[in-house]
Amino acid sequence: MPRIEWDNVQSGYELPVRVVEGSRNDEMHRYLSSIRGKGASDEQVEAAALEANAAHFEPPIGETELRTIIRSVCTYEVGDGSYHGEPEPTAILPTNIPIIDRHVDVDVLPDLSGMSPNEQAKAYVRACFDGMDESQMPWTDTICLTRNLAAPWDDGYEYAGTLLGMAGYEALDKYLPSVEDAGMWCCVNPLLPDRYRRDKTSVAAYRNLLVECDTLTMADQLQKMLDIFWDKGGHRDGLLRAIVDSGNKSYHCVIRVDSRSRQDYAIDAQFVYDLCERNGLPVDRKCANPTRLTRFPGAMRANKGRMQRLVWAYGL
Amino acid sequence: MGFSASQWRSESLLVNVDSMTGMHVPDLAEPIIDGVLRRGHLMMLTGPPKAGKSWSMAQLAYAVASGHDWMGFPCHQGNVCYVDTELDPNSLYNRLDRVRAKMGLADSGGNILAMPLRGKVVNAESIANTINDAYGEHPPALVIIDSIYSIETGDENSAGDMREMMQHLGGIAASGSAIAFAHHHAKGSAGSRNVIDRGSGSGVFGRFVDAMVDLTPIVPDDEQKGMLEARYGERAVPMRMSFVLREFADPGTRNVVFDFPLLRQIEGDYMDDAPEDGSAEAARRKGGESNRRRNDRRWGHIDESIGRAVNQCALDGVAPTRQNVADRMTMDGCEVTRDNVLRWTRKDASTKWRVRHDGPEWVVYCTDDSWAAENV
Q1: How big, in percent rounded to 5, are the helix, strand and coil portions of chain B?
Q2: Crossing angle, helix A63-74 and helix A24-37, to 10 degrees?
Q3: Which among A96, A256, A314 has the least Cβ separation from residue B5?
Q4: How far is C-alpha A33 from the chain's CA centre?
Q5: Which secondary-structure segment (H or E) carries A240?
Q6: CA gap A40, A80 in Å, rounded
């Protein structure tokens, strides 16, 4: 069995000298996850677990429990030990947030009532993600569609996005009718196709930011979003990517950010949210999560019986 | 590609200067200490250990809380957050009380809130967050941090770590509070350095702050010492307060004395020519009375010897050139060379002898007319 020189690898986690009852399971899990991230194989993880259990754990973790932890850790991807802490942000937050003094008439939005659910879904995907065109192969972005926020990973829909990439737009045709009763969500940023999880490590590109407001009336929300972000044909054309009626009492607005890193994404998000608040749109700052799910247009919102309707998409 | 928020953010960092000048020039932040410190700015007080830095910080807190003067600068009344990382809380309150009593104040008018943090692991970020959370929309006029070096933010000597800390302090300042903190002098003699470099650790300190106030002890001569002792007692240590200000004209130095528990300006100007500790002049003064007497005796001796040699030249009928004087002179039983005479007659020498042109030659003469008259 090849040995890994653990000392040469920058450590993110250090096992305490003595681990007592109450935190044993947690510490063992963290320890094994950390060495897994540094490149340990299944055998190495098991060996390290047995060794650490005997040396540092008082009393040692029981056989069955230890096996469960090892099994769980071995499902994680083997890391390459290249993790050296979070990079520093390169973006700078401006001190003076612009004030936008203008009124955009809601009539600039085209009437999309004639679009079928699938047309809405395709227009939305084309606007928010890159390379999403029937004629283009391979697609550069892998989008993540989920069926239900409470149980996003059940019965095969979790990576509808991957299927979409494989099968083109037929995938939407296939899934949309079948999820009408469950609601459908889309991760606001493209994910890595081979990660099969929606977390901070699996974002492929920091393209979009979700802007969502829960306090104003629907009409006011739309008006403010247009006042701040609408600039079709102007200097800021391309900033506003899509607006979706969530089917309840808010609009979900997708803004193109194109941040360089997760750190920069946080700063860009803060800028956009500061901008919204300065200009009279109180936003939900929790949406700064780059893997935030947003209502996917074309699907039905189950609990409200209304469609998650596309209001506008870039390129229409 | 199209426009992105990232691009908009970057564009927003650029300001058209014309929109901020001429008719649109913004008001300056209101001053907290007139002529020294504004709201949103940083002030650093440096000084050697036991100079009364902490006490004068307490004094500043009460001066701002009550709108009194501080070291002769009028303060604008406002609320103060006093962050102390060093003292046992009871000692802190006792200190503040002594300062209050000596300043003749009944109380701070509710304007001083203290944050005793001794024994707590804090860094500049946690202090900034605490202040922002506690004060919310109404930040204090002045935040005093005593002292900056007990705040755990990396290495005092690392420019990177210190810059990070200063940025957190800048974060407090951005909400509109002025920040004052004390910092100790580096080892060695402060008087021999530029004011901006007297604080210890990374040079970032001196360059990040808007107002730098430095306390350096001064070395009085006997007469000055007598006057000082008569007024402030035997243990009074006179100091010079110097300023490096980014926003205001240099107010000049002030001589102060730590008259427990307050730092006071010394009345009158008798201390003005006392040199700062560590300067060359102070080293001479510090050499002490015996040293000076010994020097005086030696220079007197040289004066007399040169005088005798010059007289001998006159008797021998030769011009008193440096060579001729050297030839007719002994010091402590040793031969004297031309170079010795050269050194003793240079313009910075402590003798009364100098040289001047007399025809083609340089001759030694006495600057004291009475001597010449007597001996010709």
Answers
A1: 40, 20, 40
A2: 30
A3: A256
A4: 22
A5: strand A240-245
A6: 9
Q: Does A274 touch chain B (CB under 8 A)?
A: no
Reported residue count of chain A is 316
The pair of structure tokens assigned to A292 is 């935030």
Chain B residues 1-20 with CB within 8 Å of chain A: 1-10, 12-13, 15
Local confidence band at A194 (pLDDT 50, 70, 90 cut-offs): low
**Does residue B24 sit at the A interface (CB-CB below 8 Å)?**
no
Nearest C-alpha neighbor of A20 from the set A49, A58, A53: A58
| Residue B140 pLDDT class (50, 70, 90 cuts) | very high
Phi-psi region of B104 (alpha: psi -120 to 50; beta: other; left: phi over 0): left
State mean pLDDT over A260-279. 92
* CA end-to-end span of chain B: 101
- Those residues whose C-beta lies under 8 Å from the C-beta of residue A289, and which sit 6 or more positions away, are none
For residue A314, list chain B residues with Cβ-Cβ distance below 8 A. 2
Chain B residues inside the 8 Å CB shell of A259: 6
pLDDT in tens, B279-305: 777 777 766 666 777 777 888 888 888
B69 sits in the region (left: phi over 0; alpha: psi -120 to 50; else beta) called: beta
Write the ipTM: 0.71
For residue A264, the chain B residues in CB contact (below 8 A) are 6
| Nearest CA-CA partner of A50 in A28, A35, A34, A74 | A28
Distance CA A64, CA A85 (A): 34
CB neighbour list of residue A86: distance below 8 Å, 6 or more residues apart: A262, A263
Contacts for B26-34 with beta carbons within 8 Å, 24 or more apart?
Answer: B28/B247, B29/B176, B30/B76, B31/B76, B32/B64, B32/B75, B32/B76, B32/B78, B32/B141, B32/B142, B32/B178, B33/B60, B33/B63, B33/B64, B33/B70, B33/B73, B33/B74, B33/B75, B33/B76, B34/B73, B34/B74, B34/B75, B34/B76
CA angle B170–B175–B178, rounded 5-degree value: 65
Secondary structure letter of residue B99 according to DSSP: H
d(C-alpha A128, C-alpha A29), whole Å: 38
Give which of A271, A275, A279 to mutate to test B binding, by max B Cβ within 10 Å. A271
On the 0-12 / 13-18 / 19+ scale of CB atoms within 10 A, A196 is middle
Looking at residue B330, its amino acid is T
DSSP code of residue B349: -
Is the CB of residue B230 less than 8 Å away from at least one CB of chain A? no
Q: According to the model, what pLDDT value does residue B170 have? A: 80
Question: End-to-end CA distance of chain A, in Å?
Answer: 58
**Dist. CA A257–CA A241, nearest whole Å:** 10
- Contact assessment for residue B220 and residue B228, using Cβ atoms and an 8 Å cutoff: yes
Contact between A258 and B4 using a beta-carbon 8 Å cutoff: yes
Q: Are A267 and A95 in contact (CB under 8 A)?
A: no
Residues B282 and B297: their CA atoms lie apart, in Å, by: 21
Tell me, what's the pLDDT at B95? 93
pLDDT tens string B290-349: 677 777 788 888 888 888 888 888 888 888 888 888 888 877 677 788 888 888 888 878
